[in-house]
């Protein structure tokens, strides 16, 4: 028996078949083409995204056919991406506006007077990264027909015919009160949203319904069970069940999450607070900070010819070149919340090489994560050891720099499928309520660890110089 876990991400869809024992039986992947539009727009075609799910799913089904039967399907989603669609036909009426899209920055700015009440209710800053500003921008600029929802609701409707979302995804919308665990009328009015037009919020271990999609005949009748945002799914997979345990995923962006227990802790240092997972009788919350460009920053280096291939990262010079960079190509999330900011690099000379520039950009990813770790400590959630996953964890020099700058050990998750494994665990909980969290997540183990090799003074000196580049990039935007 196996679970089919769908991990619908920014760059593509990964589908993984996972046995009851936690063994990876098959993997499928289909990429998605993003459009970067002047003014901060990031979009993709909705049908292309749906087709990526079909393609990756069929890749897996071709491998396991006749060998393993499926007990359930699980779904992890991008969280803050949206579209408008027809509830009757599930036809997409707009492109998908990706979480990186910042065209709603002016809309968010006009509502900053409500920042305090919004933070208290949602745990979030008013920023175009989150859902509600995008929804308002879409209504004002695309005149969409149908409902506007997060991406997961559309996918679930296509899969099962249900109009729902989950608590973790709802907590990323700026419309959901994480204290009452309900859509909030005051928040909805602020963004011009009618609460009756929003999907029903389900626990993360819910059995949503049976698959009815005719495009996936092999799955028809199998329950969709277990739904969640990709980042807390990875937190779950890495066994971060206790307050203070944290992980960072290095994917398109880098996302640092720290479990803060069963009640929300509102940040005083610019971090976000959201629902990690909600079950019938328990829930957990997390603090998080974001580096909006991680592997996408590396992709830029490749496209500009500054890197020949990703594997070259570990052969880049580690000398003290005096070059510092902040990879804020799509602005800053926590703690600055400046979507309009741009990337910056300083310390260049006529002798500077492409390798030195690349090193500075890659190290800048580690520096931004380190800054977020400091913010968590200031919020009373110190991180003493960090679990990491994602494609860029294969870059040993990046992980070593992360340990050096953060001054904490870094433990690498041994599998490239943390999100899929996490949502599969939720699916197991949904299908068998007698199971505990510990029953579904296999024992944590480490594939590789990195201890700090720098002194605290050296790390502090680097971070002090790096912050000057951050300050320059923020000041440049207002010049």
Summary tags:
alpha+beta, single chain, seven-stranded mixed sheet, Nucleotidyltransferase, domain 5, 479 residues, 33% helix, 24% strand
SSE topology sketch:
Elements: E1 2-8, E2 12-19, E3 24-31, E4 35-37, E5 41-44, H1 46-64, E6 70-77, E7 82-85, E8 96-97, H2 105-109, H3 115-122, H4 131-142, E9 147-150, H5 151-160, E10 164-166, H6 167-170, E11 176-177, E12 182-183, H7 185-190, E13 200-202, E14 207-210, E15 223-229, H8 230-237, E16 246-250, E17 254-261, E18 272-278, E19 283-291, H9 295-303, E20 324-326, E21 344-346, H10 354-378, E22 386-389, H11 396-406, E23 410-412, H12 418-431, H13 437-440, E24 448-450, H14 456-477
Parallel strand pairs: 1-6, 6-15, 10-13, 16-22, 22-23
Antiparallel strand pairs: 1-2, 2-3, 4-5, 5-8, 7-9, 11-12, 14-15, 16-17, 17-19, 18-19, 20-21, 23-24
What does this entry look like structurally?
The protein is α+β, with helices and mostly antiparallel strands and 479 residues long. The protein folds into 2 domains: 2-237, 2-Layer Sandwich (Nucleotidyltransferase, domain 5), CATH 3.30.420; 290-412 and 448-477, ATPase, nucleotide binding domain (Nucleotidyltransferase, domain 5, 2-Layer Sandwich), CATH 3.30.420. Helices cover 33% and strands 24% of the residues. The chain is built from 14 helices and 24 strands. The protein has helices at 46-64, 105-109, 115-122, 131-142, 151-160, 167-170, 185-190, 230-237, 295-303, 354-378, 396-406, 418-431, 437-440, 456-477; strands at 2-8, 12-19, 24-31, 35-37, 41-44, 70-77, 82-85, 96-97, 147-150, 164-166, 176-177, 182-183, 200-202, 207-210, 223-229, 246-250, 254-261, 272-278, 283-291, 324-326, 344-346, 386-389, 410-412, 448-450. The strands form 7 sheets. A 7-stranded mixed β-sheet has the order 18-19-17-16-22-23-24. A hairpin with a 3-residue loop joins β16 and β17 (254-261). α8 packs across α12 and α10 crosses α11 (396-406). The chain is globular and about 65 Å long. 53% of the residues are buried. The mean pLDDT is 94.
